[in-house]
Amino acid sequence: MGIQGLLPFLKKIHDHVNIAKFSGCTVAIDAYCWLHKGAFSCAEKLALGEKTDQYVYYCMKYLEYMLKNNLKPIMVFDGCHLPSKKDVEKNRREKRNMYKKKAAQLLREGNRAEARECLQRCIDISPEMALRLMEVCRERGIDCIVAPYEADAQLALLSKSGIAQIIVTEDSDLLLFGCERVIFKMDHFGNGVMIEKSRLNEVMEIQNGFYTFDKFRYMCILSGCDYLPSLSGIGLVKACKVFKLARQADLKTLLKKFPTTYLKMPLTVSDEYIDGFIKAYNTFLYQLVFDPLKKRLVPLHDYEDGIEPNDVTYAGPYIPQEKALQIALGNINIYSMEKFANFNPDNFVPKKASKKKSESLHMLSIWNKNYRIRPKTHLTETQNRPNLKGKEVVIKTKIHRTEIVKPADDSLEVKTDGELTGMYQNSPKRKLQEISSSEDEQSPCKRRRKNSSSEEELSPKKFTKSPRKPEFFSSLVEADVDSSICENAEEKNDKENDIVSPRRNRFALASPSKKTKFNLNAPKAKEVVFASSSSPCIKTEPVAEDIKVDQKLEKSTSVQSDIETKQEIKNTLPQLKKDNSKPSNKSAFSWNRFKSSSQNSIESSPHSRNPFKRVVSEKQITSTHTKSLGPIHKSSSEPSMARSDSQKSLDNLSQVSSHSNLYSIDSDCLPKPEDMDDLSDCESSVRNSETNNSSQNLGSQNSSQSSGRLTNNSSQDISNQDNSKSSGRQINKVDSCESLLSQVIPECPEEDDDDIIVVKTEPGTSPQESKVKVKNVQKASMMSGCRVSGLSRGKKKLPAVDIKQQSLKDMFSKFSNNRNEKPKLKHEKSNEDLNATPTTDNSVLSLKGGIQRCLLP
DNA sequence: GCCTTGTGTACAT
DNA sequence: TACACAAGGC
User: Fold this and answer.
1) Residue whose CA lies closest to nucleotide C8 C1'
2) Which cofactor does it need (predicted)?
3) How far is CA A333 from CA A344, A405, A549, A602, in A?
4) Residues with CB under 7 A from strand B
5) What is the DSSP string of A507-543?
6) Which residue, A751, A746, A725, is CA-closest to A838?
7) Which nucleotides on strand B sit less than 7 A from a protein beta carbon?
8) Are A662 and A650 contacting, i.e. CB atoms less than 8 angstroms apart?
9) Is residue A567 within a helix (H) or strand (E), and if so which, with residue range?
10) Residues A256, A273: Cα–Cα separation, whole Å
11) CA A592 remoteness from chain centre
12) What are phi and psi for residue A339, nearest 5 degrees?
């Protein structure tokens, strides 16, 4: 989700680049983004449980481009769900389930196109899919790492530690985590939008010296992030205004008074919101990540004095080191927490890795003992660009043919002088002139700014248009530019100029009108605390729940669902030749996960706690204060608020405000690592209670199903479900969904002898009545000359697929060719027949469009 | 008029 | 997941 509207908000500092320019660098990639996009193209197959590698090929296209351009990609995968993000994940899961139900309903109604849309919306990337991609990547010599929690934080670690110089993602959160350079919206040809951390101040328009990265982070959190919903009526613009005007106020006081002081809004900020704010901030700071070089689980940033790991378990409960390593290597299924691979980097030899041996140690695998981080000198040049004034240098600049300036109707349009000037200045020829011209006294930064407005009007692919790129990248990459150039005296001048250059902070020279009204010397003690905690600004649902409990409960629910499924199959499918009782985990449409996903029984767990409920013990207050507090009313005269200062000022709040223990989130309210080992008892008790609940519900559900009626408004039901409903109700909901799908399974009046698969249509009906046959599949496939998914020609039986997936397949196939005129084949009915009384005969034939192919003359 | 918020749509092939 | 757009509040 990220920060809503952040990327458009940062448009001013969008830098259109091609990643090939970073040749020789390491690129860390948010693998989930590509997987998700790749899965989009094969959503149906995934939903139907068919084997496909389409999403792998999709990702490899990007990676091949990078390898070709001498980049070292590191694929970073998501790990366990973070307790802080539990609500977000739950909502996503519910949405996916809703769309699954909707898809089934639409298929039943014959609306295949819309059903496909729904299936695309309920794409879920399973650990198995991630594993498949990892396997292919490793064969190609590409490093992969699974984050203990969020890939975002893991990517940030790679950036922070210097392992990766560039991050590729679609998630704007990466900027909050502090990544130096992030490329968004990258296409297969490496074109994307780069945002640099060092330029964020240009957007916030904060006076020179008053900007800190923390302010940017505060702004984003205030506007609403994954860990904290925004206050009503507060978006990025208003949040920016607040931190633009605010100077030395400590955070808690600032949050209390900002609506009236800076925004003139009648908004009351509750203490709960402020607590949530601090937690969100800490989650960005201290989320647990895996350091591949130390091979240890570490917080993204070192804990400040006064903060103990147990205080911030919402940023990721501790995981034992060996387990964390196995997760990082991709050997543990992060859903089931069971081992499902056995990758050992010490023994592994990639088969298809590039044979070209690099001498650079930073190009080795990060798991290799000889791996070394790429020297920083190459990249610092990008920040302190050499002043080329008076220098004669040879610059190699690759002109990328990918840029096509679409003439559109330019020729027909009447251009203004400004536009024409802009076009001229942006023409490639002109740019080369600019670069090579030593007479141009403008700094690269000034040129860039000058042209930025006209760039907007020209081309959708602006990356090659930016006049800053050639010298920027040539300094970074091309060896022809003497790197020592930036070490001479002129660099010093440049640095001095940089202070006032627009590159650093174009708003640094604030006009008098922009002067802050904020009194820098106002003592914090005088800040008025607007005491009102009654505002229902934020949800106070538990977030810091133990992830282990979550996983175990999820598992236990899925065990329960397995039991139910098996029982159903036992009762209704005596003739089933293969055991389908265990739904395929490989499917994005996995019923196992579908069922387990609706669990919210954790809320009823004795271990679930409300982190917002604060119980402050005297011991904690003492420890927090003695450890972390500086002078209480220290009024810094320094304009720049360093992180440690802000941290201290935050700590000070706990004394000033009535709410003590600001930083020390009460450990009594949060699960501790040692708690995690004691939860197995909880698991069994919860499982038992769920079994009871579900069995009762199952009974009632069956009785309602036996009436032969569909709960037609089931999709509405699910969307209207109150989150606070009991676990029993949740299971009921799942059952109702199951019933829906059981209803969509087609019936066939005919009987035949070969290869019969029987699936349940309705509970209570006899197997004989509910038989649906797939007739002579092999014959049909051979006759038609088409390939039937999952069925080799030598085989006679259908592949063992989940029954409900099979039913969906049937539904799909029934409606897949409705619009296509085609002659009848043997065993095949007309379209009208299909619509009237669908049979699975056709479904087998028409899978994967095989019908069309076999009809070719 | 500015800003937030909700809805619809594209994403790949 | 992000963007574009429209509606609605202030």
Assistant:
1) A233
2) Mg(2+)
3) 16, 47, 16, 21
4) A 4-5, 37-38, 40-41, 54, 57-58, 61, 120-121, 187, 223-224, 230-239
5) T-S--GGG---S-TT--GGG-----------S-----
6) A746
7) 2-5, 11-13
8) yes
9) helix A547-572
10) 10
11) 23
12) -70, 130
CA of A117 to C1' of B8 (A): 13
CA–CA distance, A622 with A625 (Å, rounded to integer): 5
A771-827 per-position pLDDT tens digit: 333 333 333 333 333 322 222 222 222 333 344 455 555 555 554 444 333 333 323
Residue A425: per-residue pLDDT: 44
Q: How far, in Å, are A388, A475, A494, A496 from residue A504 at the CA level?
A: 18, 18, 11, 11
- The model's pLDDT over A537-582, given as tens digits with 9 standing for 90+, comes to 333 333 333 333 334 333 333 334 333 433 432 343 233 233 333 3
Look up the protein residue whose alpha carbon has the minimum distance to the C1' of C9. Answer: A233
Backbone angles phi, psi at A788, to 5 degrees: -95, 130
Instruction: State, as a whole number of angstroms, the distance between the CA of A1 and the C1' of C5.
Output: 20
**What is the spatial distance, in angstroms and rounded to an integer, between the CA atom of A233 and the C1' atom of B1?**
16
CB of A524 closer than 8 Å to CB of A250: yes
Query: CA A53: distance to chain centroid?
Result: 21
What totals of helices (H) and strands (E) does chain A contain, helices first?
Answer: 35, 9
Minimum-distance residue to C10 (CA–C1') = A265
| A332 CB-near residues (< 8 Å, 6+ apart) | A146, A323, A326, A338, A339, A340
For the purposes of burial, counting CB atoms within 10 Å of the CB of A294, is it exposed (0-12), middle (13-18) or buried (19 or more)?
exposed
- A427 by Cβ neighbours in 10 Å (0-12 / 13-18 / 19+) ranks as middle
Please name the residue whose C-alpha is nearest to the C1' of nucleotide B12: A41
The whole-angstrom separation of Cα A25 and Cα A337 is: 34
Measured from the Cβ of residue A823, the count of other Cβ atoms closer than 10 Å reads 8
CB of A8 under 7 A from strand C?
yes
Q: Quick one: pLDDT at residue A728?
A: 32
The reported pTM is 0.53
Give me the CA A265–C1' B3 separation in Å, rounded.
13
Tokens representing A138 are 């490793």
